[in-house]
Amino acid sequence: MQIPHEVTARPDTGLYNAKLGIWLFLASEVMLFGGLFSAYIFLRMGAEDGYWPHGLLNVPVGAANTVVLILSSVTVVLAWASLKMRKFSQYKLWMGISILCGALFLIVKLAYEWPQKFEHFGAFIKKDAIAKYEPYLDNEGMKRKKLAPRVEVSGHLHEVTMTYDPKVWEGIVKEQETNLQQIDDRLKSGKESKSVTSELERDRKRIAAKLKEMPSVKLENFLPKHDLEIAKEGGHGGAAHHDPSVQTIHSTKMHGSERAGVTPATAEKLEKLPGLKLVTFELGLDPINADPTNPESDKPHFWYKGSTKTHGTIQRQDVESWSAFAPKHSPYFAVYFTITGLHGLHVLAGVLIMLYFWLPVEGGANMFKRNPEHLANRVEVVGLFWHFVDLVWIFVFPIFYLL
Amino acid sequence: MSTAALTHAHDAHAHDDHHYDPGFWRKWVFSTDHKMIGIQYGVTGLAFLMFGFMLMMVMRWQLAHPGEAVPYIGGLLQTLFGSSAFQSDAKGIPGVLTADGYNSFGAMHGTIMVFFGIVPVAFAAFGNFVVPLQIGAIDMTFPRINMASFWCFFISCLFMLVSFVVPGGAAKSGWTSYPPLSGIADLGPLNHVFMNGQTLWVTGMVFNITASLLGSVNFIATIIQLRAPGMTWMRLPFFVWAQFVTAFLLLLAFPPLEAAGVMQLMDRAFDTSFFMPTGLIVNGATTQWSGGGSPILWQHLFWFLAHPEVYVLILPGIGMVAEIIANNTRKPLYGYKAMVGAIFVLGFLSFVVWAHHMYMTGMGAKVSAFFQVTTVMISVPSVILVTALMLSLWGGSIRFTMPMLFATAFLPMFGIGGLTGIPLAFNAVDLYLHDTYYVIGHFHYVVAPGTIFAIFAGVYYWYPKATGRMLNEFLGRMHFWGSLIFINGIFFPMFLQGMAGVHRRWYDGGAAYEQIIKPVIHWNNFMSVSAFLLGLAQIPFIINFCWSIWYGRKASDNPWDSTTVEWDTPTPPPHGNFTKEITVYRGPYEYSVPGADKDFTPQTEAPKADKPHSPTPPAAAPAH
Amino acid sequence: MSQSHDHGKEVAHGASHDSGAPADHAQHDMHLGLYWGIGGVLVVFTAITVWLSYVDFDKMFAGHGWNIIIGMIVATFKVCLVGAIFMHLKGEKPLVWKFLYFTLFFVAGLFFLTLLHYVDPIFGTTHAHH
Ligand code: HEM
Ligand SMILES: [Cu+2]
To answer: Would you call B367 and C95 a contact, using CB atoms and an 8 Å cutoff?
Structure first.
């Protein structure tokens, strides 16, 4: 069975099926990215003053990646033209370059741009505490210059200090053990109906599993020995021990290794531990916070050049929210990662399809001998998709990197 | 290699087809044949309609008898759905629907009915089965993408079903899934990070949307590219037009919701704040989100889809009813061209009315005014469609066949649904009626005795083509009268309750507000009894549907004496559909044409003058 | 997978090519240079976009958001080039253009109607900004 108009155009529309199909698909893609970009605009318009960051991305790298995509757009169209002219080796060449460009783009994103951000630390300061951080922020200066206030201190996390109360943790374990005991008692009594019994058994399993997990989230087991330094003042034998009604509190420090510092991800895990409270963050400040009066950082981009040697301290209690420059850091990074992530998936899909058409397989390059026009159509269709991916990036680049 | 069955005009059983034996898996499971995919969509969708209805019957029990265990099957329900949805009462009798359970069932009822019931049946199943046949095509343009669409849909079904049995139960934030509620739901320490109701819901929806997109590309491309020679645009049956516009609505309105779904997934899985406002307080504690997001943003993106979606729910139904009315009045549709125009205007306008669902958000008077105007405007094409269908009945010699009974009932039912919507367009009125049972009554008249009746009409009408057997008339009539009476018993009192102030999504049926709504609360019982009887009334249908596949009366190729091309095939149609070359010579509804030898003239019948051999099809016909 | 079933009429339309024959030689040869040229223009405009972002247009025009507007105008220009030349929209069939018109209209609706939200919010319903 042969579907009509697979290769040749239908006269009244002038299109072959796949070309019509890809344009319809692209229409829906326009709406998909339209939805995301409208979210970007909506969130940016709604952001409070100072909460929409600028200049956090690496412009030279972004610009270089833009050029890579533009180049691949040229070569993919040349690959198609080569097929139209029935020049097979040229087709292989241009298509090969397009594939490599796509792959290069992805590598730069995944191996260079993204990981950098997950290492970087930023904390939004509470409104009522912001004055305390004036030396890092220079909001007086910003006000004078009629610029939006700075609300965030960022840099490389070197150290966190915390207090730890093992009693809380023990309490939770106790509670779960009591629960388990109660369930066992009820089960043993034999008085429960069938459906209740099955429920109890399900609960029992869940709690038992949780209890088994508990030791691994205990601070002592969680941190490598050399990272954990029990501070003298609040540690063993501290005042707390004399009064049995006061819980034992250890004040603890965590150093990172020389190179990486404490990763924000580790600090996040710590904060979730029962009984543990973060007290301060010790950072190597970003240039903008190390030297806040420098007019350079008012310019639109002061892309991340690595943190300075200047040390800064932030009290956890002054912080509204903190994290790595990860999606959850702020709506800005949320949209940034979502749009570039989805765009990256499109790049990946494009690369894979182009690879398929390039390899000597039945539906790919081998088709040239049998039906070159069909292969040309396929390449035209993937080309249209590829140009669309390029086109999205042409908007992404200024929107996130520059404006 | 030659072209398909189409060219084997002289040979009734073309050899291509004769040897077409794809084996069990390719024939029944991973089929690329549009008819099989249509049937797969249909069976899955009908099962989900049934499931969604059963959820609602449990809820109706709770509304009529708050806090009482569901009789007979309470224990079973509790074992199936677990302790988050059902508990035992004070005496230890299992099967009391919990508040969480009620929320779960309500949210999943809405989701399942809309995205897993109606759209798969009305759009995907009938569209797949009927459209290629009606335009004289051998299949869809992209059969493999068609198969991918169904399996994508199937995966989304699994997500939804699994979500009922994970700890915490299925999604509970309504079918609208409004944040911040949906952002914090099911995220407690007892929930799995991924295997929890709301996260599975969003993920399932992303798959469901992808399936719809793949389907709609296929439908549009098929209708544009694969019309048989002579099948010009104005010779398309109205059903094809309806599917065409519906496919565009899905294609362009769904992606923003897909984007929103991805964002909600990010909010839940990666703690972003797309929809989480600054300083959100939950259970007395400030949340740890960065904030800065907007719940209103979700509402915009959601309703950007969900308003066009209501037309996705109804347009295929109108299309089916139009076919059936023309066929059973033995008369052309009244105002076919106006109807085509109206359906386009309707599709177009449906993209700019969405915020009439958001009058309560405080988006401002100017915005409300804009959407109020567009909403009132969109009622014009809707009225044109219904009026044209009503007028089509005028002066016809109506045959009340089974499909026609349902199609006729559709008109007043859809009419009630449509007319009760008009007050809601005005924002001053809506501020009062918003989120009351009045709204529930309004849209259910559109989708239940509206679309579902159209679906029943369609099933009775095309079942013979799909299976080769007729459905039983007597069982059909039992099904029809039972359904018509009891469905009104459920939905009409909703208007009364709603106007008196009964709010939707109340777990106790309003017992807590009894002082205020006393005059109408007693209806709860009546409505619930009606719902159970409506359930009973479906039994004849289910029996009929299963029994007739093997034992029904044998159907001829064109049992309804219809004009359109899908009846010009063997019954059931073979792979490749047609055993002769299809050329279309006339419009879709040439019934009772004066001077013709029969009271219907099939679209493929050549004009008398050049009947013997007609080398050129009339219009600028595309070649195959 | 042959296309021989297509009626001769279509070939006469010039819409299709014989399977083996090199098609439209001259025309595509001419285009090769054009494609490289457009690629070059796009690269140049990428540089211009970066450069423009250093210019403070808000100061220049005493307004708000000018950099965004100008940046978007440049991006739109680039996108039009990609569409017109690489995607062959220049001279594309009317059907494709129709799809595009509708799509662009609806995207515009999505953008601007959601933004109406910020036009006259009811007091106290959205958090303060600016
Ligand atoms: C024919 C049988 C049906 C009955 C008896 C029924 C009944 C109900 C009732 C009573 C509610 C309100 C629940 C509450 O607010 O607490 C409801 C909600 C809803 N129904 Fe139905 N319904 C039926 C069919 C359908 C169909 C066919 C559709 C869709 C196409 C549908 C879509 C919905 C939706 C979207 C909601 C709102 C859910 C929510 O609040 O999130 N229903 N239904
Ligand atoms: Cu609406």
So the answer is: no
Q: Hey, is the C-beta of B266 within 8 angstroms of any chain C C-beta?
A: no
3-class SS shares of chain B: helix, strand, coil, % to 5 = 65, 5, 35
Instruction: Please report the sign of the dihedral spanned by the C-alpha atoms of residue A12, residue A13, residue A16, residue A21.
Output: negative
Tens-place pLDDT, residues B478-536: 999 999 999 999 999 999 999 999 999 999 988 888 888 999 999 999 999 999 999 99
Q: Which of A12, A38, A366 to mutate to test the interface with C (most CBs of C within 10 A)?
A: A38
C70 and C113 housed in the same domain: no
* Per-residue pLDDT tens digits for B419-442: 999 999 999 999 999 999 999 999
ipTM: 0.92
CA distance C30 to chain B (A): 31
- The closest CB to that of C2, out of B1, B277, B304, belongs to B1
DSSP output for B85-115: TEEE-TTS-EEEEPHHHHHHHHHHHHHIIII
| C127 and C77 co-located in one domain | no
Domain ranges across chain B? 37-66+98-276+288-568
Residues from chain C contacting residue A27 (CB–CB below 8 Å): 99-100, 102-103
Q: Which residue of C has its CA nearest to A375?
A: C19
Segment B549-583, tens digit of pLDDT? 999 999 999 999 999 999 999 999 999 999 999 99
Q: How far apart are CA B339 and CA B346, in angstroms?
A: 10
Is there a single domain that holds both residue C119 and residue C82? no
**pLDDT averaged over 10-residue windows placed end to end, chain A, 403 residues:** 91 95 97 97 90 86 95 96 94 97 97 88 92 94 90 87 78 88 88 75 82 70 52 36 38 50 78 81 88 80 70 92 92 96 98 97 93 95 98 95 86
Helices B365-393 & B402-425 angle (0-180, nearest 10): 160
C79/C101 same-domain check: no
pLDDT single digits (tens) B601-614: 999 999 876 555 54
User: Which CATH number among 3.40.30.10, 3.90.1310.10, 1.20.210.10, 3.40.50.970 corresponds to the domain B37-66+98-276+288-568?
Assistant: 1.20.210.10
Q: Three-state DSSP class for C116?
A: helix
Q: Alpha-carbon distance B559 to B573, whole Å? A: 14
Q: For chain A, which residues make up each domain, given as ranges? A: 30-120+331-402, 124-165+226-324, 166-219
The CATH code of the domain at A30-120+331-402 is 1.20.120.80
Q: Do C120 and B297 touch (CB under 8 A)?
A: no
Domain that holds residue C19: 2-91
Whether B442 lines ligand 1, by a CB cut-off of 6 Å, is: no
Cβ-defined contact of A48 to B292 (cutoff 8 Å): yes
The alpha carbon of A210 and the centre of ligand 1 are apart by a number of angstroms equal to 38
Measure in Å the smallest separation between the Cα of C85 and chain B Cα atoms: 24
CB pair distance less than 8 Å for C117 and B300: yes
Which residue of B lies nearest to A35 if distances are taken between CA atoms? Answer: B256
